[in-house]
Amino acid sequence: MTETSRPEMEPSEVSRPVPGPRKERTMVTVVYVLYLVSFLTALTAIAGLIIAYIKRNDGDAVSDTHFTYQIRTFWIGLLGVIVGAILTPIGIGFLVLLFMIVWLLVRCIKGLLANNEDRAIEHPETWLW
Question: Could you tell me the pTM of the whole model?
Answer without folding.
Answer: 0.81
